[in-house]
Design a protein that fits this description.
The chain contains six helices and 18 strands. The chain is of the alpha+beta class. It has two domains: 232 residues, 3-Layer(aba) Sandwich (QueA-like); 87 residues. Strands 2-1-18-17-15-3-13-14-16 form a nine-stranded mixed beta sheet. The protein has a six-stranded antiparallel β-barrel with strand order 5-6-7-11-10-9. Strands 4-12 form a two-stranded parallel ribbon. A hairpin with a 4-residue loop joins strand 1 and strand 2. The radius of gyration is 20 Å and the shape is globular.
Length: 354
Amino acid sequence: MSVRTRLDNLDFQLPPELEATAPPEARGLTRDAVRLMVTRTTDDHITHTQFCRIGDHLQPGDVLVINTSGTLNAALSVQRADGAPFALHLSTHLPDGDWAIELRALHGGTTRPHTSAQPGERYLLPGGGSAILHSPYSDSEPGHVRLWRATISLPLPLLPYLDQYGAPIRYWYVPETWDNRYYQTVYATEMGSAEMPSAGRAFTPELLVRLMAQGVQIVPLILHTGVASLEDKELPYAEFYRVPEATARAINAAHTAGSSVIAVGTTVVRALESVTGADGITHGGEGWTDLIITPERGVRAVDGLLTGLHEPRATHLAMLEALASRDHLQLAYGEALAHGYLWHEFGDLHLIRR
């Protein structure tokens, strides 16, 4: 292992060349050929490898928990009633049928949050659909609202409509539009996420079979992710989750046996911690969670986390600190920067385990 680079803090500068601008397949790689950094919290040991070798760092009896939510074509090109063009991002389908949405203004070939919209504004969607803004979805300063509660009217059922008119949400660091299949995990079963639960993107069917053959259990849950604009370091919004009873039983059995439970993505941690009591027992269930996981709260359900590399000051870093110390994360992120790991949904991965 090379000489380590420790960050002074986690408020670092991310060099543009470390932003993954396209899927690994566009760089001539298979999904599972992205890089993997494995860090062990007990002794700060760090290994640099490829994701296809993740099995070297898992033991028989370990449980991998995956989020099988599929990624919607949640970005739509729309016009305000006065003809001004905008992008509309569907975030969360609310229980009463309305949506939480984000409006983004066009700016130099990319988009940025449009925060000066007003209640009652109407936007024209492709194919004859419409969106009417009602009220801010969360507490915001007047004139700086990013997410709105809106009524969406569509001429087709949601999924066929989005297949025809929508596209995956993408940000400035991905200059080219990629087909929705590049934003899906191979195990997606139920469409519903505004943005890809990207920690699991590197898995292939063949790799999953190899892991199961070596005795690693793979169990599912659902958490439909909303938008997570990188321009705003906001707290997570409420999201829908469903944890099957069989998944809860597998997690409890692993803990009883002394095996590790590894969450594939921060979405899995959020869902599991929402159904795990202070006694460490996980239960099946479904509902809406607004849980924010901090070092002060800690984690109860998981022993490790497979995740991407998070942006400076991102709220997800607080969740990581619930699993690993600030010193460990400073060391790990210093290594990732020094070794040229790639950030964002098409980038490299980080396995944190005890």
